[in-house]
């Protein structure tokens, strides 16, 4: 039984064309941005944002009070839904829709349901083809719009849980140290679907060089060459500035194999081990 209250807005895990949103754990990831650990070290979702399942479709319920308590986070959630063409409705509208769908399903002959399923599948395939060729632009993300990089970077850096703290750290600390952000923006979307964060450094071993801190593409926009475009743009920036080296660090786990392949394909080589000493 679906349980929600009239004060909740539901971000439904289907697009306006009826396509199921991916990845399958998107709702948990989105809610995880506001989650925390309780006294028993168990993950606890925020009281105003929670994942839910509606007819086997993953959704996110957002209490309307969040708009008053944390307007930037509420806006981020709504922008996320808009950017990904996810349906947004209040709980009552969702309950009414489910009741109507159930009534229609009970009344329609099986052959009509089959025809509808075929039509929906074909529409989803057409939408997928359209999405693959959606226009996009690569540009620098300036100080006043740092928040548009949060969605993508929170995928790469799960410790990023608050858009306000993220913006403050980047603008107040990292940008003053030379940190810059590049983003790929798909047509009609507010947030960047792919982001690269980098900075210029000078040290004794490498001299003047660029160090790339972050490269990430949100899961639903991967496979379109966005990360390679970002790396190529950083290379052009280096060439224009007369910088002869670009560095990037990457963890060595098997889950990073795809990232390693990206770096190799774009001319990077493994040149050193990276050692870390954790100080208590």
From TrEMBL:
Top-level taxon in the UniProt lineage: Bacteria
Gene3D superfamilies with a match to the protein in the record: 3.40.630.30, Uncharacterised protein PF12112 family, DUF3579
Matching CDD domains: NAT_SF (cd04301)
SUPFAM superfamilies hit by this protein: Acyl-CoA N-acyltransferases (Nat) (SSF55729)
One Pfam family recorded for the sequence: DUF3579
Ranges where the N-acetyltransferase domain occurs: 136-280
Protein name, per record: GNAT family N-acetyltransferase
Species this protein is from: Uruburuella testudinis
């Amino acid at each position: 039984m679906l349980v929600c209250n009239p004060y909740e807005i539901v971000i439904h895990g289907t697009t306006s064309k009826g396509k199921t949103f991916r990845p399958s754990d998107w709702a948990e990831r989105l809610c995880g941005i506001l989650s925390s650990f309780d006294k028993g070290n168990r993950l606890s979702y925020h009281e105003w944002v929670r994942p839910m399942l509606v007819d086997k479709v993953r959704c996110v319920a957002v209490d309307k009070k969040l708009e008053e308590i944390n307007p930037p986070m509420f806006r981020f959630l709504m922008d996320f839904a808009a950017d990904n063409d996810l349906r947004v409705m209040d709980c009552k509208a969702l309950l009414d829709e489910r009741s109507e769908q159930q009534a229609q399903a009970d009344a329609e002959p099986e052959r009509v349901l089959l025809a509808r399923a075929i039509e929906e599948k074909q529409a989803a395939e057409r939408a997928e083809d359209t999405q693959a060729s959606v226009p996009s632009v690569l540009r620098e993300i300036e100080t006043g719009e740092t928040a548009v990089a949060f969605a993508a970077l929170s995928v790469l850096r799960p410790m990023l849980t608050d858009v306000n703290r993220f913006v403050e750290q980047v603008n107040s600390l990292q940008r003053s140290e030379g940190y810059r952000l590049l983003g790929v923006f798909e047509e009609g979307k507010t947030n960047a679907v792919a982001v690269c964060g980098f900075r210029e450094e000078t040290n004794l071993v490498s001299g003047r060089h660029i160090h790339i801190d972050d490269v990430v593409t949100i899961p639903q926009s991967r496979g379109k060459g966005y990360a390679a475009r970002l790396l190529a743009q950083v290379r052009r920036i280096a060439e224009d500035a007369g910088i002869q080296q670009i560095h990037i660090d990457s963890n060595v786990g098997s889950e990073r194999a795809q990232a390693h392949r990206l770096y190799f394909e774009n001319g990077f080589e493994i040149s050193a081990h990276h050692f870390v000493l954790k100080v208590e």
